[in-house]
Amino acid sequence: MSTPKRDSYEKTEDQVRRKTSARSMHSSSRQSATSNTGVLMVGPNFRVGKKIGCGNFGELRLEGIPQVYYFGPCGKYNALVLELLGPSLEDLFDLCERKFSLKTVLMIAVQLEYIDPETHKHIPYREHKSLTGTARYMSINTHLGKEQSRRDDLEALGHMFMYFLRGSLPWQGLKAETLKERYQKIGDTKRATPIEVLCENFPEELATYLRYVRRLDFFETPDYDYLRKLFTDLMEKMNYECDWQFDWVGRQVSTPVSVAPDQVVSPNREPGVPGRDRHPSQPRQSPK
Questions:
Q1: Rounded to two decimals, what is the model's pTM?
Q2: Which of 129, 160, 219, 244 lies 20 to 30 Å from 78 when distance is taken between CA atoms?
Q3: Which segments of the chain have a pLDDT < 70?
Q4: What is the pLDDT of residues 252-268, one digit of tens each?
Q5: Phi-psi category of 213—alpha, beta or left, where left has phi over 0 and alpha has psi -120 to 50?
Q6: 89: burial class by Cβ within 10 Å (0-12, 13-18, 19+)?
Q7: 146 neighbors 129 (Cβ within 8 angstroms)
């Protein structure tokens, strides 16, 4: 999922009524202009706004699949205009004082599967690849330079679940002289951290999930029903109702790029079947 570093822009023309963000993808030789008011502009129609969020390899924290409104030339720039979605999970994590309840993590976890309805294809296996992804969550095989597949996405999700439950991961905050050395240390620490230690003081189902996905072959189709059942059975055992009442529901959250603050509201519908029905206030997992 490696992407170039991109800033977010807000289109100011009146005819664009929907909330959108535009990202400039101009080359390093093209410079943005600064107006008399000190606002950084890209062409006459775009101004630099607040960045939506970024990972180690670029803007990776879009919470779902945005609609693309336009991609093409805009004067001397190339512009990509996307639908502006709501806050990222990291934003909501901050809003909840950097801890999610087990119930919230389980309701996120039951939304695991994304299938490309057109291609149904997966990338070929390769080794000696450069790292792509966010080092905090990426799979152990990714650290080893192996091509990523569905197993790696699921392992990264498992690391994310534990991050949300614990508040941090054992391989965070490692010091190193270079970025390459830091990634090496992160990978070494992941391999050296037993799953039982990573998931200590949390239900066994989380450790079972990680053991399962780490044993998958590159081409193997994950048993999504089995994984989802791990979490739905745990919810039942804990007497949780899958009502999509996430920890952030009802809390005040600021949306990015000059959009007025909004409040996360409770879904006004009957609870759906876990993993099949998603209310707009739920986060959407970004596919590979």
A1: 0.60
A2: 129
A3: 1-40, 42-45, 48-64, 112-133, 143, 254-288
A4: 876 554 333 444 433 33
A5: alpha
A6: buried
A7: yes
- What the chain holds in terms of domains, given with CATH numbers, is 89-238 (1.10.510.10)
DSSP lists the bridge partners of residue 35 as none
Task: List the 33-34 sheet strands across, edge first.
Answer: 33-34, 40-42, 46-48, 8-11, 20-24, 77-83, 68-74
Spatial separation of the C-alpha atoms in residues 130 and 122, rounded to whole Å: 18
Residue 265: count other Cβ atoms within 10 Å of its Cβ: 11
Amino acid at 286: S
Q: What is the DSSP letter of 11?
A: E
Q: Using one digit for the tens of pLDDT, what is the confidence trace for 130-150?
A: 445 578 888 878 867 777 778
Residue 69, classed as helix, strand or coil, is: strand
